[in-house]
Amino acid sequence: MVLSIELSRFNADTPIYSVSSQRSHYATSCNIATSLKCPPPGQSHPAYIQSIGGYIKLPYTMRGFAQEMHVQKFISKSKEQASMLMRRLLSPSMRFQLRDAVARLREQLGRARLWQWEIARFPLRRDSQFDIVYAGRKSRRDAAKLLLGAHDELNTHLEGANQTRQSAFVSEMPFRNALRVPNSLRAIVSLNRPMDEIMEGYQSELRRRLRKHRGLYRMQQVRDHADIERADIEMLQPYACSRHGTAASQISSDVVRRLAQETGRLDLVLYGDEVVACHLGCEFVRNGKRYWSTIRFGYTEAVFSDPKRLKETNSINVQFALEWAHNNGFDYYDIGTTGGSPEDGLLQWKKRRAGGVSSMGHHDHFHVRLPNPGSAQFLWEVPLFAIEGDDLTLHLGIPHDTTAEEAAIRFSQMNFGGLSKTYLHCAKPPDEQLLEKMRNLYKHLKSPPSLKVISSS
Fold first, then answer.
1. In this structure, are 125 and 230 located in the same domain?
2. Are residues 70 and 37 in the same domain?
3. Which of 142, 162, 234, 394 ranks highest by number of CB atoms within 10 Å?
4. Has residue 82 been placed in a domain?
């Protein structure tokens, strides 16, 4: 086997390899592009570079570097072969279940690092009567605060906290009478119906926008390495940074290329002849059903720096991805991951596209024990999703003096698809008018959730 390397211009004062700050190795001044080969007979211990003038003897450390490169190449090839073997032996559904089990185990092992835990108290809001007592990893505290919409103020000394407030307990470990609240969710659109019927579930404003502007755009798949790199550098990465700043989680360029060329696809969205956006997606199979999943959306700076233009282009981008999945026989379109709060802005945005909620593949969650008494008021301020087995439920609170009209207005955006139950935590027995208004939230769904009343007195 021949391992090709390139050496740029050296001189006698330039080290090519160094094992410590005290010792460097040098090569004779040259400008060559050569191949690492076996040395001449009888000289087997060092490594050599073959050049026009013969062989240049390299030090032992360079030989170790070459061996390390060979080992890395062998490991990479072995991983590819193992991956190919798994694809042959395991069905797509079994591979999804295997990845899901690995993700669940990784999350559980992370929670078990008790030496990284802390106990902290912080207010829910300045004008709220509730505190949050948090027990979990310090690195996950901000995620818990974001999920509950809590303020940034923090008091880690429990004895110094305001004792007049009621407390809700939040932990990474399960405990008695606690809700298992997902930190993130998926928004899923069922595709087993005509496209016109799917769009009937859209908000009227969105339908008008699509009908007005869709004909001005077109979609084009790219597979060329240069085009993929350009889309990554000019759209995927900048848009992620514009939304999340330095905390943005970027996908490596190698993964983007592999998804675009092998396991998924990368599509550009063009406005006339101008590239304005891109969509990176892939397929997965669960329980025999095919899902087309959005990995990332990307937009040029000219688009994401203009809110009005971004709103229009974003709508077109999502619509193109959904139509492609529908036309290619997929059962579901996964619009992507969102926050786990029912009031999360991104989740509400995706819900407008007839997307139901699902916790599929997400194992990052918190256990929340509601204040008692006071759960009705707490859930009025902070509605929560909760996982029961494989089902997703929604918990809402109705305080003592709340009218049916006030409840209908407060929870008008809680009409999610994909729920098995909606729990109403009521400070007093609800009247029929209130229950009817809550049922009307889900009248647009073919399979509305059942409504359960819980007394919080």
1. no
2. yes
3. 394
4. no
In a domain, 103, yes or no: no
Residue 140 lies in a domain: yes
Average pLDDT over residues 289-312: 92
The pLDDT of residue 109 is above 80: yes
How confident is the model over 303-329, as pLDDT tens digits?
999 999 999 999 999 999 999 999 999
Q: What is the CATH number of the domain that holds 231?
A: 3.40.630.30
Strand-pairing partners, residue 270, are 218, 275
Amino acid at 93: S
pLDDT higher than threshold 50 for residue 172: yes
| Residue 69 is assigned to a structural domain of this protein | yes
Q: How many CA atoms lie within 13 A of 47 on its CB side?
A: 17
Structure tokens at 295: 């990995």
Same structural domain, 69 and 175: no
213 and 321 assigned to the same domain: yes
pLDDT higher for 429 or 23? Answer: 429
What own/partner pairs with CB < 8 Å and gap ≥ 24 does 303-308 have?
A: 303/276, 303/277, 304/238, 304/239, 304/242, 305/242
pLDDT (tens digit, 9 = 90+) per residue, 26-48? 333 333 333 444 444 544 444 44
Looking at the structure, do residues 44 and 143 belong to the same domain, yes or no?
no
227 & 177 share domain: no
Output 324 or 126, whichever has higher pLDDT. Answer: 324
Enclosing domain of residue 63: 3-76
98-102, 302-306, 342-346, 449-453: least confidently modelled range: 98-102
Residues 237 and 326 in one domain: yes
Question: Domain tally for the chain?
Answer: 3
Q: Is the same domain home to 268 and 173? A: no
Model confidence, pTM? 0.74
Q: What is the pLDDT of residue 284?
A: 86
